[in-house]
Predict the structure of Glucanase.
Amino acid sequence: MYQTAFFASFASLVLGQQIGTYTAEKHPSMPMQVCTAPGSCTTENTEVVLDANWRWTHIIDGYTNCYSGTAWNATACPDGATCASNCAIDGADYSSTYGITTPSSGALKLQFVTKNDNGQNVGSRVYLMAGEDKYRMFNLLNKEFTFDVDVSKLPCGLNGAVYFSEMLEDGGLRQHEGNKAGAKYGTGYCDSQCPQDIKFIDGEANVEGWGGEGGDSGTGKYGICCAEMDIWEANMDATAYTPHVCKVGEPTRCEGVDCGAGDGERYESLCDKDGCDFNSFRLGDQEFYGPEKTVDTTKPFTIVTQFATDDGTDTGNLKSIHRFYVQDGQVIPNSETVVEGVDPTNFIDEKFCEQQKTAFGDNNYYGKLGGMAAMGKSLEKMVLVLSIWDDHAVSMNWLDSTFPADADPSKPGVARGRCDPEAGLPATVEAAHPDAYVVYSNIKFGAINSTFAAN
């Protein structure tokens, strides 16, 4: 993802590390299938858990918030370690508070704006669980990952994202003494943007240097970095899939230039924030994806992503990442590139990344940090993330509009989609489309060509 999601629009939805007892934590069921060949699949009784950054945090044995508006409670949180000791994270009312529901077995619906007793919640992020207190870990090498999606109610400016993050299996419970909640309560998030709006990192509150403006939830001195594989970032009008690599091989706290947030520091970060993206519109096929296009976003469809290795084994080096769609019983190959300087192709590999970066005049930080080989190492230990979010940094223009917004859209790589740059302003999209939602369903994982019917 280009930027981390804006987390919550009311003060009580923040992260804590002790465990509260006011609301029981009950994970919604979202079973998946593991396949060895077409039609040969077994069901795993997986669940989802809400990210801790959305949750109510309060003083232990009390209702006083540890965080309000964009500020920490100075009494409870004079420093990071003390705050972690004083504050408890509670269970979540998934449906009423966050608009997270399971309309059918194996399906998950994420509502964009949900009115509730505290005001309203905006967006959400959940992780797939293998049990009550462990994330479901994936080794994606020599495998394919498949799911169904309905983006018909997801307008410009929103992002329904399905991706993998190099998080720890237990959410950092064992590694960080200050973390008492662990994966059961959705702790331990990291991604390639090295997000600094995470309230607790490595078991301590991100209190130092914390500040926020307007509707933003605030940021602190520290960020948390790790590799990320964006399987699906999309709305009705645009989509991209993007590998992001890092210098580090596990969740790593950053500060200063390592976070890459300052002027001129983006390409000095621990992680490659741009990634090597495959966006059909940006790559020259503007009729491939969208309402009544080749992949018709007014109707549900299936997304297949394959991770091919150089020797065809689960321990080989990542060679290429392939994409297929299935809609109305038809398998639709990914679009081919139509860009001067980029060989016609419909998948991501090292050559594509190098040519695309050159053609668009972009910094190939992806290649500098190890490219496909580095991505492959990270793909051995990934956690599945499903989310819906709007973008307080650049209004999702990087996905579905002109980016940078003041650039000439006729310049190669600038036009990412058909959307008006103003459509993604958070205030605009939250007011105009509070009823937006995305539905993910029918997750399958297994051997290449085992999870869908190829023709």
Summary: Confidence is low (pLDDT under 50) at residues 1-14. Residues 24 and 91 are 5 Å apart (CA to CA). The chain has seven helices and 30 strands.
